[in-house]
Write a structure and sequence with these properties.
D-amino Acid Aminotransferase, Chain A, domain 1; alpha+beta; nine-stranded antiparallel β-sheet; Dna Ligase, domain 1; globular; 11 helices; about 400 residues; Rossmann fold; about 30% strand
Length: about 400
């Protein structure tokens, strides 16, 4: 069965998750990308994977390319940037997929806020600043409250997401982001207090499975770098139901979804919805922790298969993800290599995210990650001890 996978740059989710799953399902994959050269020479991804050049940000180019090769079995993407394009292509060919309207609502942060408010959810004060508009005029007209958060409307990975304490700081931050992204629309919204969590879901359009979620530890303000994710097998029922109700209002319920939210005084309020699997090894951790063929299930929904009533997920274990970050610009001169280790009943998997010898600026996003450590064990105490001991024994040296 011929399946098309839309992608930009290579990710661990695609290389280590979805492509092996496609092989297990007997699928022939054409990976459509605007960066074919970064995927290596022909055959580098396996005998059943072809890499083809395509302007994947344009749904018309995607549909035209696929139409030259006959009716596909599925069109799929795990990219934040390509969900609407993938959904439109799947709909064009009459294939199972996400509602393109829901994909657009979740990608466009201003549209998400407007839609949730219009549907009756508790509103979040927000202002959209389009390219060419005056941030000062928009902020004044929108009645921004402080502290607030400014972010690109279509951004990902906490890039250029910054907290502002007062009007002067906000206008300065808008100017700095505009200098880097002159064509980007911005969103300024009230800062939502509370503990940050995620909810991970998997659906087939009829049945929705909740896979648990994570409690997120962030870097100190004003930036929002995710430094640690601790697995939460089940959020309190009132919290879970509040988030599921908001996802239903957005039209989310097909394939995988990674939702970030805060809980404050019993209220659960969405920060953002990423209508794809959690990244930065979170999906790989879930597959290992729950002992389920997660990537196979996600692809199967796009082939039109119903999810089982029970996924048979293993329970009673704990896990966390740690992401050591660069704290300065420079050359990474010393760092640990890949590690796969069993420490009693605890399994540790470390993967470098940056090669030694390369110079990098300081991004203040997950592009500053030096590596990712996944730790799975029988209980949280043993997981925490093993992860803390591993991290304490490592050295990452950056030369300015």
């Amino acid at each position: 069965m011929q399946t098309y996978l839309l992608a930009l740059n290579p990710t661990d989710s695609v290389i280590s998750g979805f492509l092996p799953a496609a092989g297990r399902l007997g699928l022939s994959v054409t990976l459509l990308t605007d960066q074919p050269e970064v995927y290596g020479p022909p055959g580098a991804l396996g005998p059943d994977v072809e890499v083809a050049a395509c302007d994947v940000r344009d749904h018309r180019a995607v549909i035209t390319h696929i139409s030259r090769h006959g009716q596909p079995a599925a069109v799929f993407t795990n990219s934040d940037h390509l969900q609407t394009q993938g959904a439109l292509a799947a709909e064009f060919f009459g294939l199972p997929g996400k509602d393109w309207r829901a994909a657009l609502r979740t990608k466009d942060k201003a549209l998400m806020r407007r839609h949730l408010a219009a549907a009756g959810a508790e509103p979040v004060r927000s202002v959209e600043i389009l390219p060419g508009q005056s941030p000062a005029a928009c902020v004044e007209a929108g009645g921004v409250v402080y502290p607030c958060v400014v972010k690109p409307r279509d951004g990902v990975a906490s890039e250029d997401v910054v907290r502002a304490e007062d009007p002067a700081e906000l206008l300065r931050l808008c100017a700095e982001i505009r200098a880097r992204r002159p064509d980007a629309a911005l969103v300024v919204e009230e800062f939502l207090p509370g503990e940050l969590y995620t909810l991970e879901t998997l659906g087939d359009g009829r049945r929705l499975h909740v896979l648990g979620g994570f409690h997120t530890r962030l870097s100190p303000p004003p930036h929002f770098i995710e430094q640690r994710l601790t697995y939460v097998p089940g959020h309190p029922a009132p919290v879970r139901e509040q988030i599921l109700e908001q996802l239903a209002l957005l039209g989310v319920g097909f394939g995988s979804c990674h939702t970030e939210f805060v809980v404050h005084e019993g209220r659960a309020r969405i920060i953002e919805v990423n209508y794809r699997a959690i990244g930065d090894h979170g999906d790989l951790l879930l597959a290992e922790l729950l002992d389920i063929p997660l990537f196979d299930h996600i692809l199967a929904t796009h082939l039109g298969e119903a999810l089982p009533e029970s996924l048979g997920a293993r329970t009673g274990r704990a896990a966390r993800i740690d992401s050591p970050c660069a704290d300065r610009a420079g050359v990474l001169t010393s760092a640990p290599g890949a590690v796969d280790r069993a420490d009693g009943d605890v399994r540790l998997t470390y993967r470098p995210m940056r090669p030694t010898g390369e110079r990098h600026p300081l991004h203040r996003t997950n592009r500053d990650y030096l590596g990712i450590l996944r730790t799975v064990g029988p209980d949280q105490d043993s997981v925490d001890r093993a992860a803390d001991a591993f991290l304490a024994a490592q050295r990452w040296e950056i030369t300015p």
